[in-house]
């Protein structure tokens, strides 16, 4: 594997050991390492770009996709030890506004100082919830399983007044407008 993964103070540090991270070499391994870190419950992930001279659009798109998933779980991702050419590329593409870019490992770890680093959901509880979700998905209870023509009825819990009682009635009690 061309990706080193280690943990420091609850932060997952990932280092791709390639000069070029592309769709053909390295991007899939980096994606797998990021996915595994998230699966282990890490909410703080720092990627060491030391020695990486080039990243293609597939690798950048993968980083953005993994960032979105991590961000949805209220996590944070940053890059550090980014070379000057890569840093300039990230700056021009406004990529550094999305994912933090820090100079050193210590600066990256300081970014996560007051942040939660791991989820506190136990593995057993996560397994129970995943089984409940999968069964509800099979039964069609989850919103993404329903289709527009689906006739399943979901209860509407909003309390609204009856429209007929709020319509203006004329002097004769009819709904005719004068």
Give a quick precis of the structure.
The chain has helices spanning 27-39, 57-72, 84-92, 105-111, 123-139, 163-166; strands at residues 3-8, 11-16, 20-21, 44-48, 54-55, 76-80, 100-102. The chain is of the alpha/beta class and 178 residues long. A hairpin with a 2-residue loop joins strand 1 (3-8) and strand 2 (11-16).
Walk me through this protein's architecture.
The structure is a single chain. The chain is an alpha/beta fold. It has a domain at 3-111: Transcription Regulator spoIIAA (2-Layer Sandwich), CATH 3.30.750. It contains 6 helices and 7 strands. Strands 1-2-4-6-7 form a 5-stranded mixed beta sheet. It has a two-stranded parallel ribbon with strand order 3-5. The relative contact order is 0.12.
Oligomeric nature of the chains: single chain
Describe the biggest sheet? 5 strands, mixed
Could you tell me the mean pLDDT? 76
CATH overall fold name of the domain at 3-111: Transcription Regulator spoIIAA
The radius of gyration is 25 Å
Number of helices: 6
List the helices and strands and how they pair.
Blueprint lengths: L2 E6 L2 E6 L3 E2 L5 H13 L4 E5 L5 E2 L1 H16 L3 E5 L3 H9 L7 E3 L2 H7 L11 H17 L23 H4 L12
Descriptive tags:
globular, alpha/beta, five-stranded mixed sheet, 16% strand, 178 residues
